[in-house]
């Protein structure tokens, strides 16, 4: 009986050792970013775009407007003017290393009730004529999609 118990314990310890050897450690880090020249170009964002977006149900979207994108004064970020029904919104943020994603913050001045809208956005180059992405108001848990076609 004692020998049987020793065999069971030995098998259990060997099995535990084998199982723990199969566990991987934490990832080594890094961004999987190839260190080389960017694959996109900031110019893919610049210009005037016809913009269509989804929004909260009370807006009755899909909604339509325009987005004009320029380089900011110091050349480190992009600025956007989102013209739509109601007050226009401004966008500001950097472009990713690969220059194919523009992300940052947007803000809209207070409306008649004194309510300002702010949030964050992400816009990605699909091709030279198309952008897609999402935006999310700070006060909302849901992000909404938007799409842009070059004018």
Keywords:
151 residues; mainly beta; Lipocalin; eight-stranded antiparallel beta barrel; 1 helix; 8 strands; extended
Topology of this structure?
Layout (H helix, E strand, L loop, with lengths): L1 H20 L25 E7 L9 E9 L6 E6 L5 E5 L7 E8 L8 E11 L2 E8 L6 E7 L1
Antiparallel strand pairs: 1-2, 1-8, 2-3, 3-4, 4-5, 5-6, 6-7, 7-8
Characterise this structure:
The protein is mainly beta and 151 residues long. The chain has one domain: Lipocalin, CATH 2.40.128.20. It has one helix at 2-21; strands at residues 47-53, 63-71, 78-83, 89-93, 101-108, 117-127, 130-137, 144-150. The protein has an eight-stranded antiparallel barrel. Residues 15-20 have low confidence and may be disordered.
Total beta-strand segments: 8
- Any guess at the CATH architecture? Beta Barrel
CATH topology: Lipocalin
Q: Secondary-structure element sequence?
A: HEEEEEEEE
CATH superfamily: Calycin beta-barrel core domain
Task: Please tell me what the overall shape is.
Answer: extended
Low-confidence runs: 15-20
pLDDT average, as an integer? 82
What proportion of the residues form beta strands (DSSP E)? 35-45%
Task: Write down the CATH class.
Answer: Mainly Beta
Biggest β-sheet: count, sense, barrel? Answer: 8 strands, antiparallel, barrel
Portion of residues in helices? 10-25%
Radius of gyration equals: 26 Å
Separate helix tally: 1
């Amino acid at each position: 009986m004692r020998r049987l118990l020793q065999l069971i314990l030995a098998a259990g310890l060997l099995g535990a050792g084998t199982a723990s050897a199969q566990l991987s450690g934490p990832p080594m880090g890094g961004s999987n970013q190839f260190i080389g020249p960017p694959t996109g170009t900031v110019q893919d964002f610049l210009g005037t775009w016809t913009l269509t977006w989804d929004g909260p149900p009370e807006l009755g979207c899909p909604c339509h407007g325009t987005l004009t994108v320029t380089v900011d004064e110091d050349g480190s970020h992009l600025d956007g003017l989102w013209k739509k029904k109601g007050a226009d919104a401004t966008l500001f943020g950097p472009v990713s290393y690969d220059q194919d994603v523009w992300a940052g913050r947007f803000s809209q001045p207070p409306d008649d009730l004194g309510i300002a809208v702010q949030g964050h956005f992400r816009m990605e180059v699909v091709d030279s004529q198309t952008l897609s992405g999402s935006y999310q108001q700070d006060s909302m848990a849901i992000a909404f999609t938007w799409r842009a076609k070059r004018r």
